[in-house]
Design a protein that fits this description.
Elements (H helix, E strand, L loop, with lengths): L1 E4 L9 E7 L6 E2 L4 E6 L3 E6 L4 E6 L6 E3 L3 E6 L21 E2 L52 H10 L17 H14 L26 H16 L2 E9 L1 H16 L6 H15 L5 E4 L4 E4 L5 E3 L1 E3 L2 E3 L2 E2 L7 H16 L13 E5 L18 E5 L3 E6 L4 E14 L5 H16 L9
Amino acid sequence: MADFVIPELGENVAGGDVVRLLVKAGDALKKDQPVLELETDKATIEVPSNVGGVVKDVKVKTGDKVKVGQLVLTVDESASAAAPAPAAAATADKPAPAAAPVDKPAAAPVDGTPNAPPSKVVDISRGAAPRPAPTPAAPPASNAAAQVPAAPSTRRYARELGVDITDVDGSGPGGRVSMDDVKGHARSIITSGGGGRVASQPLPDFSQWGEVDVQPMRNIRRITAERMASTWATVPHVTQCDKADITDLEKLRQKYAKKVEAAGGKLTITAIALKVIAAALKTFPQFNSSIDVRNDAIVMKKYVHVGVAVDTDRGLLVPVIRDVDRKNIVQLSVELAEFAAKTKSGKLAPAEMQGGSFTISNLGGIGGTYFTPIINAPEVAILGMSRSVTEPVWTGESFEPRLMMPLSLSYDHRVIDGADGIRFLRWVCEAFEQPFLLSLEG
């Protein structure tokens, strides 16, 4: 008899929640075959077995929280290990860990400066290197999407890319669909539809010109690269820029900073921007939507969940502040500070990076003037904030020093016209310029 315990799952990952069991008592088990799907605070992964034989007893169930080193099942190694049934089969060779989405890109701005930064937005989905065409396999038992053999993370990835998982040919045993299969199918759609994406060309041997250091992409960086490339290739971006005079707003921010600190938060320009954007989305509802190309429809969202791009040492993340329109600036400041702490410590759950309807990316604490933020699809717009600078502004009679904040709005031109884009951005600027319209109490 042999025991299988939860192995080491990666740096700073102590355990997770059991999403699905892939084997049961009496099943034949092969070495390196996945036995359960585990959702950690970083990803949903399939955990492979390091023993083979026949499963005698399963010690955990779906929904259990498990830790590294915890006993999962016992295996009779002396029993014949026949090939596993398709429903419990793994992807060929080894499982591929999958990252959760997120809605999309850093520590949230909590430093109290006039324009504190998170970094560039992203969104979070799974990327991987191109692979050969999948080998045809037996079809799944049912044609219904729910019956397609695929991990929850693979289904989520397909939804994010707008791929019908029932159209994807699975290359794993029993027709099991992997993320590589979904990505390959999406690539074929883009290529056949004239999306204009050029296949990656092999790089030259750079070492012939000097010393190099080849470093593997970290998971989040790989996810970021794949998601951004997909969004840029499929969404027609337009970016418009403007400046907001935040001279009076900065005075108001400093005046109420102590009150917000007493409540446990920091009154940053990003916290105020959350409230401004919530009001703007009510005035311009097309910015709070998603386009459904498959069904020729536009999904108008009644909720207001805003993502804030956050830069971490592990890569770009986008925690989502929910129901921003129902919270006052003090509440938003406190929640933003809490998310910043969770993001820095790596405790941000996948669910806390999902469901956003608009994204804010603040680079102001780092520098720069304007930039072109990439839309966090399936959202249709994102606001970029840059460093505020005191400039001479003509009042009609004289020049006065005013604190000006550059803003960059990127939007999906399939849903939003240029005139509406600049109206939205001008509305946002005027909201920043008239702080008396923003109440700290509601």
